């Protein structure tokens, strides 16, 4: 059986003022459906960059995927048209980002941010999205009032939970937890 995720010889570089920095060198891994895989490494060893590469979210410039291949469910992610990649992101592959404050929008309530992908990607009505958002919040252990709160009103741990709720909202096939 083919693995759900297959990375072969991934190389990612960043152009910095000090010169070229090789952030990921020759990463290869396989992940099967229903499997959990942990990447362990010291700070700066390339864990976040590897996950961002799978999402095709490496900022370019300064970053660039120089070589290797990333195949998800039999599709080569690195050559997919960007529209197709957008559809996969959030829908089939979700990511819990390391920094919750940079990915949560400070001017929208948590409820609105959980509901947005449900309305946008899954075509739920506002009412159905509200119910699902409440269900997701309960799942990650946040009380009902959390729906009406803004990210800055929450502790870092709770913000992370909101991100987990958002990432699970569309039932992704694969979850990258940075
Ligand atoms: N936008 C960027 N511009 C320049 N260099 C970057 C950028 N993003 C990451 N890097 C570099 O890539 C390397 C890998 O970083 P990465 O964030 O993947 O490490 P990490 O293993 O996730 O670390 P941590 O455990 O601290 O989260 C680091 O040397 C980092 O400085
Ligand atoms: Mg990291």
Keywords:
single chain, 178 residues, alpha+beta, 4-stranded antiparallel sheet, two-stranded parallel sheet, binds adenosine-5'-triphosphate, binds magnesium ion
In N-to-C order, the SSE pattern is EEHEEHEHHHHE
Uncertain regions: pLDDT < 50 for 5+ in a row?
A: none
* Shape type: globular
The ligands found in this model are:
adenosine-5'-triphosphate, magnesium ion
Portion in beta strands: 25-35%
Helicity range of the residues?
A: 25-40%
Q: Please tally the helical runs, counting DSSP H or I stretches of 4 or more residues.
A: 6
Q: Radius of gyration, rounded?
A: 17 Å
Distance between the termini: 27 Å
The major pleated sheet works out as:
4 strands, antiparallel
Written account of the structure:
This protein has 178 residues and is an alpha+beta fold. Strands 2-1-3-4 form a four-stranded antiparallel β-sheet, with helices on one face. A two-stranded parallel sheet has the order 5-6. The chain starts with a strand and ends with a strand. Helix 4 crosses helix 5. The chain has six helices and six strands. The chain binds adenosine-5'-triphosphate and magnesium ion. Adenosine-5'-triphosphate binds next to strand 1, strand 2 and helix 1. Adenosine-5'-triphosphate (ATP) binds next to strand 1, strand 2 and helix 1.
């Amino acid at each position: 059986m083919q693995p759900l995720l297959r990375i072969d010889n991934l190389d990612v570089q960043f152009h910095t003022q000090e010169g070229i920095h090789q952030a990921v060198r020759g990463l290869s891994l396989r992940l099967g459906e229903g499997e959990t895989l942990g990447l362990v490494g010291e700070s700066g060893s390339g864990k976040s960059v590897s996950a961002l590469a799978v999402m095709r979210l490496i900022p370019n410039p300064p970053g660039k995927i120089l070589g290797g291949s990333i195949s998800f469910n039999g599709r080569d992610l690195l050559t997919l048209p960007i529209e197709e990649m957008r559809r996969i992101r959030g829908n089939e592959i979700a990511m819990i980002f390391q920094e919750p404050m940079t990915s949560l929008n400070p001017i929208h309530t948590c409820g609105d941010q959980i509901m947005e992908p449900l309305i946008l990607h899954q075509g739920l009505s506002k009412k159905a999205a509200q119910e699902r958002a409440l269900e997701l919040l309960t799942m990650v252990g946040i009380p009902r009032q959390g729906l009406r709160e803004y990210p800055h009103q929450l502790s870092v741990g709770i913000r992370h939970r909101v991100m987990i709720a958002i990432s699970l909202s569309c039932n992704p096939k694969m979850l990258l937890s940075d």
